[in-house]
Amino acid sequence: MWKKVLWSDETKIELFGNNAKRYVWRKSNTDHHPEHTIPTVKHGGGSIMVWACFSSAGTGKMVKIDGKMDGAKYRTILEENLMESAKDLRLGRRFVFQQDNDPKHKAKSTMECFKNKHIQVLEWPSQSPDLNPIENLWKELKTAVHKCSPSNLTELELFCKEEWEKMSVSRCAKLIETYPKRLTAVIAAKGGATKY
């Protein structure tokens, strides 16, 4: 059953990551010896928001969200990427789409789109941050992207898409294979934290 699910979510990806410090070497004014340079941490640099999906068969499409996400923008993303991802991943016509309970996802017109296209949407519990296996992939994606050292937002977007496509099918399959175990752990922890 879980192999038939197309998992999705949005995430914010920082240009310089939370813990990646960027040092800019500045010559100190008093001295002209190159060893007397002062590291200054360059903060900021901005971030991008992306939407992506995956199944046990691998990663689907990833798109950068321009500007603020609203219901209409979300529907456009789905129209342009959902069925195509399901087709690319050979999920067949009877796949199930997973999205969390963000109001933009649950808007009446969005839910109507699903109904008209006969797309089954997975019932999703409201307080369930660690139930979406895509979270594990986001973590790996961010690590991989920061290793590429993007220097601007264009590179950041490019590396995100490249690294997302590079995610191994076996990694995706493994996440879904262990999914029932994850659910059992969450139920046992009565919704508390788990090792997943």
Automatic annotation (TrEMBL):
Task: Specify the species.
Answer: Oncorhynchus tshawytscha
Tell me the Gene3D superfamilies matching this sequence.
Ribonuclease H-like superfamily/Ribonuclease H
The highest taxon in the source lineage is Eukaryota
- Domain named Tc1-like transposase DDE is located at 5-155
| Protein name, UniProt field | Tc1-like transposase DDE domain-containing protein
**Which GO MF terms are attached to this record?**
nucleic acid binding
Q: Which Pfam families match?
A: DDE_3
